[in-house]
Amino acid sequence: MPAAIALLAALLPLQTKVPKPYDQITPESLQAHLRFLSSDLLEGRGTPSRGLDIAAEYIAAQFKLAGLATPPNGEGMDGYFQVTEFENRRTKLKAPVRNVIGVLPGSDPKLKGTYVIVTGHYDHLGKRDGEGDQIFNGANDDGSGTVGVIESARALAGLKPKRTIVFMCFWGEEAGLQGSRYYTQHPVFPLLDTVVDVNLEQIGRTDDDEGPRVSEFNLTGFDYTDLAATMTKAATPFGVKVTMHPKFSGPYFFASDNAPFATAGVPANTISTSYSFPDYHKVGDEWQKVDFVNMAKIVRSVCAGVWSLANSKDDVKWNEKNEKTKRYVDAWKKLHGAS
Prior knowledge:
CATH architecture: 3-Layer(aba) Sandwich
CATH topology: Aminopeptidase
């Protein structure tokens, strides 16, 4: 009997140990979301389209299931949706379009009025007329980023960060960053109090045109802000490296939804596993080609980094020593009344 009691005592800590929140982000959970969002049923999630609307409803449902709060009521707000109209230039088929926004409220009396925003775009290129497969499913671009936002929200939703974390998925990135531009022109949360935008784009595939990219991710504008240091520290325990692409770090900084935030003065970077892959903007960008094991490591790393940002008393800062950031530094100073 004493031996049995000793064995039970030895096992008890293992049974009661609570796993870290990002451990629930698994290849299986990522695949479940992405198989739906990039399925033919959603017809490529074009802007605007029925498939885009279905995707928006799905994302909102996931935010609700995770227990995220809805944003404050205001002009254009409808629950988790920030609604506006998009005019198709070819047909002149105004249609409603929606950014999807979920909120994890901060708990610190001083910091809860500041915001860490995690973003990705849920639209893609839709479908084309013709024979054969004409659906641009957009699994990696940017179904993967959307799923990263959903899973980060699910993992962190039961916790109490000091700052408020806002999870947001945009319409219209492929139409010229229109969803994120609309948000920064009509912010639900003050840009003045927005600490950083961590944007997720193409985090699913490892078959980069330059060679396999496993256990690492790029940060656009790597040396434009000090976000890289936080993300590097967060990613290291997962065996993930944060890298500065020698050619694309700067040029791709303005190619995704971080750009409108940066233009407004908010420190903002995009995380990508690959910049260019064989099926970029082609019908072959389907979920079966995503490396879900690697994607889980990336999303866990991002999630840990976001948690660190949300609990730090230090704001993310622009690198004023880099001459390429001057326009963003000037915008930050204007935003903060420091110019």
